[in-house]
Specification:
Length: about 230
């Protein structure tokens, strides 16, 4: 086994000497995977970063809600303590001890009830805010997925030049679902009426306050087609 190690070292030695003579660093074969791993750089993923930022915002919101609830609980306990001390002090100072005690206790109970009502309100509000954040997160996910899908469809449609070629359908940015009434072929766009164009442009979040002719041009541009197709040129 020692002889094998010596022979392996002797085989590597000429390569190492040649690489060092040329100013290159020597890397044995068994270190190549580690060297390659160190040289690789992760590609940026915009959608993943946006999602991670949204998740961080959700976490920060939840932390703030928990912090607010904890602060309210402490304030409630301190307020209860102060009110009880005030009641005891007033009872010792007055002759009508029993009547004053009952009055003060009622006041404390009313305050506690109000505080409990406030706590319930804050908890409901926190739950509502949490639902809002989740809804925003879900909408953002749908929009990111729809945009990614539509980007591919736009590229595919940009290469179409004949009326009978099939269009790559786009998805709604809001729901990430297929757009109802989306034309099947390039030539079908010319047969769309004003109401259909308005619905399609609205779903794609495009301006609809224009005439039918401009709407066709706007729709073509929105789905990746040229505004003037080859058969329309003079």
């Amino acid at each position: 086994m020692a002889s094998d190690t010596i022979q392996g070292t002797q085989k590597l030695l000429p390569s190492q000497l040649n690489m060092e003579a040329n100013g290159e660093s020597f890397c044995p074969d068994n270190d190549l995977p580690n060297q390659l791993a160190r040289d690789q750089k992760p590609a940026a993923n915009t959608a993943a970063q946006a999602l991670e930022q949204m998740q961080q915002r959700v976490t920060q919101t939840e932390d703030k809600i928990r912090e607010t609830e904890s602060l309210l609980v402490r304030q409630i306990k301190e307020l209860e303590k102060l009110r009880i001390e005030e009641v005891e002090y007033q009872m010792r100072e007055r002759e009508d001890y029993d009547e004053e005690l009952e009055t003060r206790i009622e006041n404390v109970e009313e305050s506690i009830s109000e505080i409990n009502t406030s706590i319930s309100y804050v908890r409901d509000l926190a739950e509502y805010l949490k639902d809002c954040v989740e809804e925003v997160d879900m909408r953002s996910r749908r929009r990111l997925e729809a945009n990614a899908f539509n980007t591919v469809a736009l590229v595919q449609n940009s290469h179409l030049t004949h009326q009978e070629q099939k269009l790559a359908p786009l998805r709604s940015p809001i729901t990430n679902t297929p757009i109802p009434g989306f034309p099947e072929k390039v030539g079908d766009i010319a047969n769309l009426d004003d109401a259909q164009l308005t619905s399609l442009l609205s779903t794609l979040e495009e301006d609809t306050a224009i005439g039918q002719g401009p709407k066709q041009d706007r729709f073509r541009a929105a789905i990746g087609l040229a505004r003037i197709m080859p058969w329309e040129r003079a």
